[in-house]
Amino acid sequence: MPDEKSYSPGLEGVVAGISSVSEVDPEKSMLIYRGYDVHELAERATYEEVVYLLLMGKLPNRKELSEFTGFIGHERHIPGDLMDMIQAYPDTAHPMDALRSAVSALGLYDKTTSDLSHNATVEKAMKLIAKIPTIIAASHRFRADLDVVDPDPRMTCAESFLHLLTGKKPDPLAVRALDVSLVLYAEHSFNASTFAARVTASTLSDYYSSIVSAIGTLKGPLHGGANEEAIKMMLEIGSPAKAEAWTLEALAKKRLIMGFGHRVYKKGDSRVPIMRKLGQELGEKLNQPQWHQMAQIIEEVMWREKKLPPNVDFPCGYVYYMLKLPIPLYTPIFAASRVAGWSAHIIEQYEHNRIMRPTNIYNGPKEVTFTPLEQRP
Ligand code: SDX
Question: What is the CATH number of domain 226-322?
Answer without folding.
Answer: 1.10.230.10
